[in-house]
Amino acid sequence: MVIVGKKPKMRYVTACITLFNKGEKEILLRARGRSINNCIDVAFLLKKSFYSDLKIKNIAIGYDEAELEGNRRRYVSFIEILVSR
Amino acid sequence: MVIVGKKPKMRYVTACITLFNKGEKEILLRARGRSINNCIDVAFLLKKSFYSDLKIKNIAIGYDEAELEGNRRRYVSFIEILVSR
To answer: Which of A4, A21, A71, B18 would disulfide-bridge A39, Cβ 3.0–4.6 Å?
Structure first.
């Protein structure tokens, strides 16, 4: 699994390439909140620039619950993209 | 179709409720770039707060190509979420 955050996209692309080079066949990309668009970009950068045979096997969305101080709750949406070679 | 942008989420939620009240059974939510997380939030707000029977029928991701001046191209990722009652 690669958790995509706010760093430059190429960092996550490189992390995925390293995993594929180690023999992984599938990688789960996961991001929350404002990093979600970064996550989709990473998937398509991988496909367009590195692995033209890359398949997007599954896309899931949902939300995580985070407890804040004072019993307040916040919901943060997430996306999970499963890519495979 | 409801195109989700950067306005407060409740605007888009209200737009969807209006469509459902007019008899629509399915709504396609679409967003690009940094509005993508807003779009996922809208889908779950609808489900959690208004229509507990709401189904997320399909999720698609992709990228749009935009031509900038000087023949430069930019890619913007998008998401499409199909919700139905």
So the answer is: A4
- Residue B4 is encoded by which pair of tokens? 């989700």
Task: Please answer yes or no on whether B40 and A36 come within 8 Å at the CB atom.
Answer: yes
| B43-75 pLDDT per residue, tens | 999 999 999 999 999 999 999 887 777 777 788
List phi, psi (to 5°) of B46.
-60, -45
Residue B69 half-sphere exposure, CB side, CA atoms within 13 Å? 0
Q: What is the pTM of this model?
A: 0.90
- The residue type of A79 is I
Beta pairing partners, A27 = A83
- pLDDT tens digits, one per residue of A56-78: 999 999 998 877 777 777 889 99
**Cβ atoms A59, A81 nearer than 8 A:** yes
Mutating which of B41, B45, B61, B64 best tests the A interface, going by the most A Cβ atoms within 10 A?
B61
